[in-house]
Amino acid sequence: MEKYNKIILLVGLIGSGKTSVGKRLAKKLSLPFIDGDQEIEKASGLSVIDVFKCFGVEEYRAGEARIMKRLLSGQPCVLASGGGAFVAEQTRKLAKENALTVWLKADIDILYNRTTGRKRRPFLQCSDSKIKNKLQTYINEESPYYNEADIIVETKNENIDCTVDRVLNAIKEYYIAKEKA
Questions:
Q1: In Å, how far from its chain's centre is CA 28?
Q2: Which of 115, 136, 139 is nearest to 125 (CA)?
Q3: Contact 174, 150 (CB under 8 A)
Q4: What is the dihedral of CA 161, 162, 168, 171, to 10 degrees?
Q5: Average pLDDT for consecutive 10-residue bins of the chain (181 residues)?
Q6: pTM to 2 decimal places
Q7: Under 8 Å CB-to-CB from 162, ≥6 apart: which residues?
Q8: Coil, strand or helix: which one is 87?
Q9: Helical residues (DSSP H) of the chain, grouped into ranges
Q10: What is the four-CA torsion angle of 144, 83, 54, 72, rounded to 10 degrees?
């Protein structure tokens, strides 16, 4: 596998597969994997849920932006952003300068199936019956930002290794197209 000398930033909605795909992608590319949510937990000494509960959404997002600034100024890696991190203008700007961005785009049914019943997601702290509506709101509000990513890969209800292979192929095609331009 060729060596990539850039951060590969995976962006997308809650449940799109950023962490699962990111871990395996990093392994295939022989790069370290960093999870943005875990970095928030390390920096704060709290779980993401507790950061959200104790400080509220505004401070959570401000802390997330500081973490992303540090991570996007770091060494090449595969970086899984938090669900809404790419919405922040500063994060998108730094990503454009320092990373190759990949939007793992998933439809509402896939997102719903992957998130229902999971209690570690602060932005989906509601009854399972309301999750689909909340996800649709996120799709409507955040998709224009994710659409700015360098690469878009539709995630499907498939084996994760198939998704990882499709992301790898999309990255290779991106670099081939850049060389030809």
A1: 18
A2: 115
A3: yes
A4: -140
A5: 79 91 96 93 86 83 92 96 89 96 93 68 55 82 94 92 96 91 76
A6: 0.90
A7: 156
A8: helix
A9: 18-29, 36-44, 48-71, 89-98, 108-115, 128-146, 160-180
A10: -90
Q: Are 148 and 5 in contact (CB under 8 A)?
A: no
Token reading at 14: 């809650």
Q: How far apart are CA 12 and CA 17, in angstroms?
A: 8
Give the pair of three-digit tokens for residue 21.
């795909």
Structure tokens at 101: 């961005």
Q: Dihedral sign, CA of 60, 37, 12, 88?
A: positive
Location of structure tokens 């950023």: 18
